[in-house]
Amino acid sequence: MSFFSFGQSAEIDVVLNDAETRKKAEHKTEDGKKDKYFLFYDGETVSGKVNVTLKNPGKRLEHQGIKIEFVGQIELYYDKGNHHEFVSLVKDLARPGEMTQSQTFDFEFTHVEKPYESYTGQNAEKRMIRRLNDITKELDIVVHTLSTYPELNSSIKMEVGIEDCLHIEFEYNKSKYHLKDVIVGKIYFLLVRIKIKHMEIDIIKRETTGTGPSVYHENDTIAKYEIMDGAPVRGESIPIRLFLAGYDLTPTMRDINKKFSVRYYLNLVLIDEEERRYFKQQEITLWRKGDVVRKSMSHQAAIASQRFEGSAASESALEKAAKEESG
Amino acid sequence: MTDSAVADTRRLNSKPQDLTDAYGPPSNFLEIDVHEPQIVGVGRNRYTTYGVRMRTNLPIFKLKDSCVRRRYSDFEWLKNELERDSKIVVPPLPGKALKRQLPFRGDEGLFDENFIEQRRVGLEQFINRIAGHPLAQNERCLHMFLQDESIDRNYIPGKTIQAAAPEPSTYISTSRH
């Protein structure tokens, strides 16, 4: 679709200022492919340059205005026409007029809010894109939401069973786990009157989309991990040690923009000799831990204080940061 | 806030197991044999009965060692009762073999040795599968089938008496199979 005078067209290129240093994160796209995108956190500034290159230099290019948008949107797959925008910032780069030569425009979205983590699932997708108008060029970025260690993180301990048949007590060391954490737990058998063949623990992801009467759940078994092979008797304790880093997990997302949720459950499954399955599901909260959050923050503070060059304060701040890193 | 680089993966504390529990007989002993086929009756009124011997230490069964004689139609009766009253998916019985009841066969028909053996194996698998199901163990028809001398087809169907009403939140779920 071209609004331009005959014979002229342009190519648009968006380049981030920190493209060399910024980390990239892998992210699954709608068709299941994994691609790498620039990674941003909430509050970070997004800045760069827009290069508009004329295809036929020397010829004029009339345009209705050039602007850049920073958009955060949610798309539910069953409702593809509707994009719900939860962030939308626009900056004008040029007023309507004409261009006679290729130009570069600077842009900066300072400390822009990115409230939600990027997520591509069965039914929902959340991403941040930047685009220009008239001829559009989109640049997808990925956002990760970081958390710190929760203040309250009680263990999960419960006794469950079938009257006179099977009684167990299960325990998981925490209720909130970060994505590279380890689930440490145990299953204690109080009564075993059935013939158990083996026991496994599954991680189930449940994606919920829609509200009110049209709620839709999609369950996905992310992992199946056998923790016991053979028949237990009363008094036996079976340990659990499940490393989460090996699995494709995202943080728990509750009611994102009132549109969708992603929740995780541990499913403890016992299978008897006749292939009957006995199971108990328990929700856990997953959160994303920053890699070197503490270190970078004190380092940034040290660099900021360096603006007052040669001051004793900046020297000691840098020293302190260095100590913290090695300590 | 401690931020250890390596997660603590030590086992959680657990109660030591009592040695009589560790080395004693398991609480889930249940064995049912379908054996000793016998042909009863004469001429065209003959039929085969099988011995159904149950050995168990499950408290839900009144007798720890019982032996009864049952015929194929008794197994059919049990299957129908469970399908009607219980929520379980009842496993299949070996076939009815109607063709074997027709005359002018080359072999012994219903009383052919191989056929009886095949049926015996199928019936044994059937009853073992059911008897181990916690939901089937609540049905009076199962107890009558396994431990009463004869089946009273005019019995009052129902569940065996339960000690206390279960609390739903503390339950493990089972699949119906």
Characterization of the model:
Mean pLDDT of chain A is 82; it is low at 1-7, 293-299 and 304-314. With 327 residues, chain A is mainly beta. Chain A folds into two domains: 10-143, Sandwich (Immunoglobulin-like); 156-287, Sandwich (Immunoglobulin-like), CATH 2.60.40.640. Chain A has helices spanning 293-305, 312-326; strands at 10-16, 24-28, 34-40, 46-54, 61-63, 66-76, 83-94, 97-99, 103-109, 119-120, 124-132, 139-143, 156-162, 166-172, 176-178, 182-192, 196-209, 216-229, 237-243, 253-256, 260-272, 277-287. In chain A, strands 2, 3, 6, 7, 10, 11 and 12 form a seven-stranded mixed beta sheet that branches. In chain A, strands 15, 17, 18, 20, 21 and 22 form a six-stranded mixed beta sheet that branches. In chain A, β21 (260-272) and β22 (277-287) form a beta hairpin. Chain A is elongated, with a radius of gyration of 27 Å. Chain B is α+β, with helices and mostly antiparallel strands and 177 residues long. Chain B has a domain at 26-147: Phox-like domain (PX Domain). Chain B contains four helices and four strands, in the order αβββαααβ. In chain B, a hairpin with an 8-residue loop joins β2 (47-56) and β3 (65-71). The radius of gyration of chain B is 23 Å and the shape is elongated. The A-B interface holds A 148-149, 158-166, 168, 171, 173, 181-182, 184-186, 188, 191-196, 231, 233-237, 239, 241, 270, 272-280, 294 and B 1, 3, 7-12, 14-15, 17-18, 21-22, 24, 26-28, 30, 58-60, 128-129, 132-134, 137, 162-164, 166, 170-175, 177. β22 of chain A pairs antiparallel with β4 of chain B.
